[in-house]
Amino acid sequence: MNQSKILKISIATAIFFSIFIIVLYATNSTRPIGEKYKQLSELGGPFTLQTKDGPFSLSDIEGKVGVVYFGFLSCTEACPASIGVVQAAYKQLSDEERANVQFLFISVDPDRDSLEDLYDFGDYYDNDLLALTGTQEEIDKVSSDYGVFFELTDLEGSALGYTVDHSSRFYMIDKQGKLFTTMSHSTTPSELAARIQQLQAM
């Protein structure tokens, strides 16, 4: 084997292992490059946040499958798209399956997303969506617990003043209230529905 072939094989092998390492990080962490990574086993945990009707804890849905998403009401791209995926996934579930899953939308913008607005937002989706928020300290803690990245970004010349850059993932909670896995924003409705059914069968 000549040196040219050996070099090509070496380069191909290096590329393969580089891609493998990137995929491994992407599937086992929820932070963007440059942020501190957390393994799935380190994520999750109980939380209590607020609704217009009072405190709500993750333990309140024990026995059901939970789909948790972190976003904010003035989000114009990732959040509406992700909610659309949840809606489409729910349509693929039976009435019994829908009765045993709860979608929790946690606002990472407590300064602008009032409890009243979050209630109206959740009410629009009937019982399929429950919108929660809390103090900045509470949001910071639950975001850290679940490995959620978000930061405020100024919008010069915009009436909004700022937007919130945030990671976009679905956090799948099993019937015992434990984080089972996360699913990316590119998850299809069929994939999400299948995961819900899997967790309900466990």
UniProtKB/TrEMBL annotation:
CDD domains: SCO
Transmembrane segments: 6-26
Thioredoxin domain mapped to chain residues: 38-201
A Pfam family of this chain: SCO1-SenC
Domain of life: Bacteria
Keywords per UniProt: Copper, Membrane, Transmembrane, Transmembrane helix
Gene3D superfamilies: Glutaredoxin (3.40.30.10)
Family per similarity comment: Belongs to the SCO1/2 family.
Record's protein name: SCO family protein
Organism: Marinomonas vulgaris
